Each structure stands twice: as structure tokens, then as C-alpha cells.
Fold this sequence. Notes:
By secondary structure, this protein is α/β, with parallel strands linked by helices. The protein has helices at 31-34, 58-72, 87-97, 111-120, 146-160, 175-191, 208-220, 232-244, 273-286, 317-331, 341-345; strands at 7-8, 11-12, 42-47, 75-80, 102-106, 125-129, 139-144, 165-170, 196-201, 225-229, 249-254, 265-271, 292-296, 303-305.
Amino acid sequence: MGRVWAQCGVAFGLLGFLVSAGFGCSKAADPKASGKAEPKKLRIGLVTDAAGIDDGSFNMSAWEGLKKAKAEAQIETKYLESHEQADYKTNLSGLAEQGYDLVFAVGFLMEDALKEVAAAYPNTKFAIIDGSAPDSPNCVSLKFREQEGCFLAGYLAGRMSKSKAIGFVGGLESPLMKRFEVGYRAGAKTADIASRVVVKYVGNWTDVGKGKEVALASMRDGADILFVAAGKGGLGALDAVAERGAGFYGIGVDKDQDDLHKGRILTSMMKGVDAAVYGVSKDLAAGTWSGGERVVGIKEGGIKLSPMRFTKQDVAPAILAKLDSLSKAISDGKILVPTTEDEVQNFVPPKN
């Protein structure tokens, strides 16, 4: 299945980045005076999906990872926002045509566009997040076992719910989103076999108003805790939860979104998109680039719940301890979290 990352420190399996400078010297050498050419500055670009760079989660996290790499190496960065699917090929090709050394495609919907563009620009390296890359040495696929973190979120929601009904608000219904949904449902099932999960989809990644409407409908259906994974629609859903106030919680996604509505975001299912982008960028800078597929989850540190900075006091110590034990069981392979509808239907919760 390709190479699997192991996160160590701030990067996924990164062996370290060597900077060719006079470290510890009082004055840096002048490359022009010595006759040596200045090192070539890498150019790394990023193409967002339709939710845009300010989605507060997926795209923003990718851009933050690239900015971190830029701060530590000689890298020039740029992003292009996609507003519709037709923009994917144009934006990917545009960055390659401009001479960017590495281009990130943020989102599985860019798979088809990437197949065409990567073949047309074999000297440009490409990385796709959440999607499958072409089988080519200039491409790498960065994937996550999101269902594992969603399982923990579902368990926590199930234990914290007063109504015994929790909600899942997804963006665009797809196999990827199904993994989020069924992982969450399996966690809820583990918390309480009778827990009911209200599942609704916004239908896109961009509609803040529709996300709010879907969240309100979910709460009318009895859900008092909503896990939202819907891009900008998720921001609207979290707004709706916050407006309902005490007794209702949202659960964020991808980034630590707990501070969006302090005290009303129970936790966030954090996905190391930033670390993935950072790691691949630094690999390229260090000359250790490799193509293929990299998949990470709880074991590798690529998936986890947020520290719950504003809500931890609301969660009983026994629940927090159980979350730790479930996380370890998943990491050790003792719990295999469902990824499909059939698997979640047949899932038998682990015994306490």
C-alpha cells in the first residue's frame, strides 16, 4: 500500500532538514565574494478546493503547513483558489507552467485533473491530499485514517449527550465522508448501544447558510451534539450550535477549532494536513522526496482529538480515561474502526 509515515516531532518521519549556512559564525559568508552561486529557492504552490483558503479547517490547515516550511527553508510559496471543479486543471497546470517545483492538490476531487496535469508536467512534483495520485515517480498521495479520530469523537459525543441523540453534518456525500460518518457512528455505538445518530449532508463545501440550516434541522430532530465536517458549511453549523447555547456542543474538524466558539466546541477531530504538507515540503528541500502513497492515523500521530482547552472541565475523568484507552486500542490494532456501511452495521463494540 506504499510507504506509511511515522510522525516524529513536527514532521511525519522527517529525518531532519540541513541548512547550508555558517551556523554559529559571527558573519555569514558572501556567496558572491566566494564565487559560489546562491542556492536555488524552491517554489511550492497549493491549489485549494472550492471551500477556499479561509475555510477554517482543511484548506487553511494545508496552507499553514506550507507557511511553516517556508519559515524554515528557502521556499517561495503561492496558493490558487478553486471556485468550481473546472478550475482544478487550470490551477494545477498554471502553477506547473510557472515553474513551481512542487504543487499540492488539496482534496480528492482533484484526482482526475491531477492525472492529466502530472502526465503533462513530468518534471514537476505533485502531492494530493485525501486522493489517489497517479502511479508516477513525480506524484505522492497523502491519506489519513480519519475514521479512527471520528470514532473517538463519536464515543465522546455519545457519553456526553443528554438527549441520547447526536448529529453528523457532512459536506459533500462521498466515500471519504462515509468514513467520517461510520467511524463516528461506531464510536457512538461503543458509548451506548442505544445512541441515535442524526446524519445529514450539506451537499457542498461552500454554503455557510445551508450548513447552519442543516445543523438547526439536526437539533430539531433531537441531536444535542453535532460533529461537523463540511468545509465552510461546517462554520455555519458550528455557529448554529453556539447560538443554541448551554446544553449543546459542536465538534470541529481537521484543525483545532475549539476557539471558534469557546466552551461550545466540545473537541475537534484533528487531522494532520498541516504536518503532511510541511513534511513533504521539507523532504523536497532536503533532497529526500519519494513518490507513492503515505497513510497515517492515530498510531503515527496523524489523527487525534484536540486538547479540549475550553471544555475539558465539562468531561468526567472516567470518560477522558476511556478515550485514552480506546485510542491506545486503535493504535495497537485491537479495535478496527469501520469504514463502510456494512462494517458499521456489523460492528461489535469492544467490552469495557
